[in-house]
Please model this.
Amino acid sequence: MHHRELVMTYLHVLMASWRDMYPSVYVFSVGSLIPFVIAERLWPIDTPPRFRDYGFNVVLSLSTAYLSLPLGILAALWSEQLRHAVGWNPISITFDDLGALAGVGPALELVAMIFVPLFIHDLWFYWSHRLEHRWGPLWALHRIHHSDECMNASTWARDHFLQAAWRSFFSIFTLGMIVDLDLTQAGKAALYSNLFLTALSMFYHSAIRVRIPWLDAIVVTPQVHRIHHGADPAYHNKNFADALPLFDIVFGTYHRPRRGEFPATGLGEGFPAPRSPWSAQWSPIAAATRKLWRP
Ligand SMILES: [Zn+2]
Ligand SMILES: [Zn+2]
Model:
């Protein structure tokens, strides 16, 4: 494709995607929180989150959704270009063979559609997340997520837009090279696994006092992730996985929650939570730039 044409395609896709976000992103980001807000009142860990705790995260996550989209589309477009340039044929995965099995087929197909992309996603997520906790410029962005002193269901999307972009860039770009993203089935699988992951992430960020020991090593639970957010340095660099604790267990960063272990969250006095979603988006850019110049 010609340069000019490519820019036009990019702008066209970007404008259409921005337009498509309205109103679903608003309905979704508020509507899906409602059951968790109720549960956080019925079975709170501490004092239940205040409405402004939710409000801050919702506004920040909406601005992140809009601001990170241009970079996400760029990643998809770029991986497609690179694929063509090197003449690489991506693997087309099919879940049909599973679905055709007698009896358990359809259920197995759905489980595979959720867990195969989740496994690939989590492998990338685990290492990019570990790097964010290690390398100054990335930590300057990621600590916005950790600065929530009253972690709750809406914390799941409390991310700086550059962090959201870098994480999706990583998975869109690499997945775009390996798997053919245009397949309807791949799209469906991405949708199912994404829905599952979003619901799971809202659940494990929630301030519900719930203990599910048998599940702690299978998928991330509220107690497992609360340890990752723990303000006490004893909890730092533990439980990095987004969905599957398997990666923490294999790579030696797993902290199994004990009975009654619901630590306080946040970054302590050294980094108080930003006062407005605006400063949460702009101050980390300055901090990350400073760290890049003077590591
Ligand atoms: Zn983290
Ligand atoms: Zn978190």
